[in-house]
Amino acid sequence: MKVIRLFTAASTLALSAGLTQAADTAGWSYKDIADALHAVMESDRTVYTRLIVNRLQNEEKVIKASEHWKDDKALVLPAQMFRFGAEMVAEKDAGFTYSLLSEWPINKQNAAKTDVEKAGLSEIAKTGKPFYKEETLGGKKFFTAVYPDKAVAKACISCHNDHKDTPRRDFKMGEVMGGVVLRLPMK
Amino acid sequence: MSATTSRNRLLWLTWTVLSALSAGLLWFGLQAGTEAPGPMNVVRTAFLPGQTSHGHHQIELACSTCHGSEAFTAADVMQDACTQCHGAELKNVDDSHPRSKFTDPRNAERAARLDAAHCVTCHVEHKPDITHAMGVTLPTDFCVICHQDVADDRPSHAGLGFDTCASSGCHNFHDNRALYGDFLVKHAGKPDLLDTREVLPRDWKTVLEELYESYPIDRFPLQALTEPDAPAGKGSAQVHDEVNKDWLATSHAKAGVNCSGCHEVAPAAGQPAMWADRPDHTVCATCHKPEVNTFLAGRHGMRLAAGMPAMTPAEAMIPMKADAPHDGIGCTTCHGAHRFDTAHAATDGCLACHADEHSKAFGASPHAALAAKEASGALPAGSAVTCATCHMPRIEHRTDDVRRTLVQHNQNDTLRPSDKMLRPVCMRCHSLQFSIDALADAGLVARNFRGKPSLHVESIDWALKDAARAEAERQAAKTGNPDGQP
Questions:
Q1: Among B90, B91, B93, B100, which would you mutate to test the A interface (most chain A Cβ atoms within 10 Å of its Cβ)?
Q2: Are residues B341 and B373 in contact, defined by beta-carbon separation less than 8 angstroms?
Q3: What is the tens place of the pLDDT at every residue in B115-140?
Q4: pLDDT for A36-77, tens place per residue?
Q5: Closest to A82 measured CA to CA, from A31, A37, A130
Q6: Which residues of B touch A137 (CB under 8 A)?
Q7: What pTM, to 2 d.p., does this model score?
């Protein structure tokens, strides 16, 4: 909860910096803002993954993390923690959206859908570097950034390699497992 | 000539006056408050474009509850109204299709086909001719709009009709807490009747002092009372004796709640308290707020929540007894003033009015027989199953302060779709498979579960097959055998 609050605080800051009215006036480009937002997202999730999930589940073995965390009285999975934050941001109509997608999604709804998502996920898997492109969706123009999402802890790969719905079971530490897709509406 | 002219004038004048009167009457009908039934509400019905569904018919004359007062047709005003009443429940059930899924620009193309960010896309009111189960007004195969390729990932689903997704007992659009794959697998293979059968125990007494601001412990310190504090001259001596006897037997007397605790009410905030002969639900809410809130969210209380006169059995769309009480429904309708006998409220209270087939079959049902067995000592205390056990069940209520048992007075929380009943109710005593099958058998439901389910929903079988397939893949990946062959 605190992590999510931290993140939303950070995103509010970014928004008040004039996200939608671009950024010439404040000296921030769409790419700068996207990179800043992603830095917060990535750091918070890494903190949660390493200091909470990996430590308590894999090292100390005192509590498990589970996709069905409510039923299992368990920790929320890092990917879920990320997704719940994204949903909360969406509910606030915060002006931008983000999601966690993959070429090997456990939930098929999280596969690439738009052309930019497809190109971006394929590109980041090859280069390991962010991918930026403008796209038009539903008649609106977006600045879309796709950031490589790498396996930062054993919990990432053990869960994905073992899950019943996974299309891929040979992920290794440090590999790109998918991407964070972040969209800023353009004026 | 002049006679014709003056007649025309008169006719024009009459027409103008009548038109103005009609328009004025309609306008006043629309603007009138909803508190009082009467001619204005009759006028208001003229504005109904069509009969409302079973979910909203009680409040159909409180137009502004859904439409707002100004922007009558604005989609967002309507959406806010939907969320006002249904938002918390959807959140609570981990809605499988939350609004954020459809406002995400990456789903713009999909949302253009089905704008599920707005409730009214699927649930249009006032359209009885196209309203299906659950108030859905789309064709019943609506899942195909987004899931046409489901068989690619789930070969077992190849060839299934899209009108069977929700009608088969397998899926719901919103609430799938008891229907998701891992849950089906986890609860597979259990006997129809579980070894341990128990409903949540009452714990009100033990948590009272932990409730902090939600219980006025300062006003009603825990102490057993023996003498009433009713003012003299209220009713005859005989009435007094009877009321005192009833009150002395209640938890109210044991918890320090005297006559004045309920009858001395401030008519408005800041005003001195005055004696009220018939305290309403707002008084009960002084101590029982979550219970009253769930009552107001349900079919019995939703009219009060909309600022209308209370619902009466005569106005129900489902069969009621002809001699059902005609008063508006409040807390004491079922609980009975002064006696507050929950055992009465849990069955007799319901059957005093409800006369549909399922209700009428309760007396001869296996569930009803449990009460007699409990009374004779053949079964342990708490074995009885009443109407309320299933329709107003005890649920776990969490606040920041405490986790306690709450009786859910919003019957729709477990009513429609009936799968909502699986986890909080059926599975306390029965296996998931038996429960799913029983709820899917409309005839069995009408007979109030006398007999066995006549059909078998295959969802658990399929989930088990899927789990076996995944396990084989997992093993193959570990041993480096890509085909999963031994």
A1: B100
A2: no
A3: 999 999 999 999 999 999 999 999 99
A4: 999 999 999 999 999 999 999 989 999 999 999 999 999 999
A5: A37
A6: 105-106, 108-109
A7: 0.87
